[in-house]
């Protein structure tokens, strides 16, 4: 351990070492390990961010679900009422101020329609982005393989242990016993008599 001084604190030395790894040709494996750990940390951060985004979306849905329901229901009610009212105005042949009422009704219908569209579009865009990200993670799964024969993961360990035990049992059942076992067995049985 190097002592820490006021002129050269430990954290500055570590940062200098990190910068020197990139330039020093004597430490490529150490730098490669550092880069691999850096990528692993980035992947963990991305996974954590994705999980937090889903949690935030669920919390927002629970917090504002009732308000959104009421807002959409009232907008639907307003649009239906305004369209019916506009129909009644047009059918009564009251043409004296029907253009003003038409524009007024149409502006309110447009406002409530845009409100419903905006809420639905924002939610659909968020769902699509998160779903596309999940599909990208699922479809582009990272696999390490041994020339395409085996996946390098924990199942390889289980398969190897199972194969070793299976072949060992087969060899013990089929194979001849070594002569050393016969000599010790005969020697031990005759010495006891």
Automatic annotation (TrEMBL):
<feature type="transmembrane region" description="Helical">
    <location>
        <begin position="68"/>
        <end position="90"/>
    </location>
</feature>
<dbReference type="GO" id="GO:0030425">
    <property type="term" value="C:dendrite"/>
</dbReference>
<feature type="transmembrane region" description="Helical">
    <location>
        <begin position="102"/>
        <end position="127"/>
    </location>
</feature>
<dbReference type="GO" id="GO:0007635">
    <property type="term" value="P:chemosensory behavior"/>
</dbReference>
<dbReference type="GO" id="GO:0007165">
    <property type="term" value="P:signal transduction"/>
</dbReference>
<dbReference type="GO" id="GO:0005886">
    <property type="term" value="C:plasma membrane"/>
</dbReference>
<dbReference type="GO" id="GO:0030424">
    <property type="term" value="C:axon"/>
</dbReference>
<dbReference type="GO" id="GO:0043025">
    <property type="term" value="C:neuronal cell body"/>
</dbReference>
<keyword id="KW-0675">Receptor</keyword>
<dbReference type="InterPro" id="IPR013604">
    <property type="entry name" value="7TM_chemorcpt"/>
</dbReference>
<keyword id="KW-1003">Cell membrane</keyword>
<feature type="transmembrane region" description="Helical">
    <location>
        <begin position="156"/>
        <end position="174"/>
    </location>
</feature>
<dbReference type="GO" id="GO:0008049">
    <property type="term" value="P:male courtship behavior"/>
</dbReference>
<dbReference type="GO" id="GO:0050909">
    <property type="term" value="P:sensory perception of taste"/>
</dbReference>
<dbReference type="Pfam" id="PF08395">
    <property type="entry name" value="7tm_7"/>
</dbReference>
<keyword id="KW-0472">Membrane</keyword>
<keyword id="KW-0807">Transducer</keyword>
<protein>
    <recommendedName>
        <fullName>Gustatory receptor</fullName>
    </recommendedName>
</protein>
<keyword id="KW-0812">Transmembrane</keyword>
<keyword id="KW-1133">Transmembrane helix</keyword>
């Amino acid at each position: 351990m190097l002592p820490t001084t006021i002129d050269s604190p430990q954290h500055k030395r570590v940062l200098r070492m990190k910068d020197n790894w990139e330039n020093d040709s004597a430490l490529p494996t150490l730098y490669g390990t550092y880069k691999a750990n850096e990528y692993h940390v980035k992947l963990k951060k991305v996974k954590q961010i994705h999980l937090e985004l889903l949690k935030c979306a669920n919390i927002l849905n629970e917090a504002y679900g009732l308000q959104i329901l009421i807002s959409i229901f009232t907008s639907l009610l307003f649009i239906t009422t305004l369209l019916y009212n506009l129909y009644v105005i047009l059918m009564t042949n009251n043409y004296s101020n029907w253009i003003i009422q038409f524009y007024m009704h149409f502006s309110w219908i447009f406002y409530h329609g845009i409100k419903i569209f905006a809420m639905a579009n924002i939610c659909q865009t968020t769902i699509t982005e998160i779903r596309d990200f999940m599909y990208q993670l699922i479809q582009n799964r990272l696999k390490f393989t041994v020339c395409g024969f085996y996946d390098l993961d924990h199942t390889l360990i289980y398969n190897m242990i199972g194969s070793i035990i299976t072949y060992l049992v087969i060899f013990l059942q089929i194979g001849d016993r070594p002569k050393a076992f016969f000599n010790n067995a005969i020697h031990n049985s005759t010495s006891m008599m």
